[in-house]
Automatic annotation (TrEMBL):
Binds to the 23S rRNA. This is Large ribosomal subunit protein bL9. HAMAP family: Ribosomal_bL9. It comes from Collinsella ureilytica. Pfam families: Ribosomal_L9_C, Ribosomal_L9_N. Residues 13-40 form the Ribosomal protein L9 domain. Signal peptide: none annotated. It comes from the Bacteria. Residues 146-184 are annotated as: Disordered. Keywords: Ribonucleoprotein, Ribosomal protein, RNA-binding, rRNA-binding. Residues 151-167, 174-184 have a biased composition (Acidic residues).
Length: 184
């Protein structure tokens, strides 16, 4: 079924494009959500009349995407999460967390759906993450995952002290228990 797109649909096309999709996809998803209309003679005629307005909006979207690409490319953001032993995270870093970090640290608002992770991040480290801004316009951001090094060092020393205290206590308790039966 041929439809005229009223908005950009990732992987299908942009506003004003005439594409061929499955009839069920068009009737059950695109048309009810007002993302497309059937490509009838009347709708195609209206599309020709609106082409100039669509071209202007397209130019604005592309220029906005290019400015965002310049603002994001080569930048790095840090996502602070709890890190367990051997750099394994408690949970994982999500696209929403990365989008929030970009907004907080770089001042650029990015939709979480535009962050392309591929696989969930479950280990502390440095990861390149691609952000799809508009159609083929993409930016790559470096994401630093994990708590800052100072905090990790402090936590490691506190854990070491706590483990030393814990090992001292059972050793003393064990010797007292051994001596107690011998005294009787």
């Amino acid at each position: 079924m041929k439809v005229v797109l009223l908005d950009e649909i990732k992987g299908k096309g942009g506003e004003g494009d005439v594409i061929d999709v499955a009839q069920g996809y068009a009737e059950n998803y695109l048309i009810p959500k007002k993302l497309a209309v059937a490509a009838t003679k009347g709708n195609l005629k209206q599309l020709e009349q609106r082409r100039r307005n669509i071209a202007k909006r397209e130019e604005v979207r592309i220029s906005n995407a290019n400015t965002m690409q310049e603002a994001l490319s080569g930048k790095s953001v840090s996502v602070d999460v709890k890190v367990g032993e051997e750099g394994v995270l408690f949970g994982s870093v999500t696209a929403q967390m990365i989008a929030d970090a970009i907004k907080a640290q770089l001042g650029v608002e990015v939709d979480r759906k535009r962050v392309e992770l591929g696989r969930p991040i479950k280990l502390a480290g440095v990861y390149p993450v691609e952000i799809s801004l508009y159609r083929e316009i993409r930016a790559e951001v470096t994401v630093l995952v994990g708590a800052p090094e100072k905090d990790q060092d402090e936590e490691a020393s506190e854990e070491a002290e706590a483990s030393e205290e814990a090992t001292d206590m059972p050793a003393e308790a064990a010797t007292e228990e051994v001596e107690a039966p011998a005294a009787e």
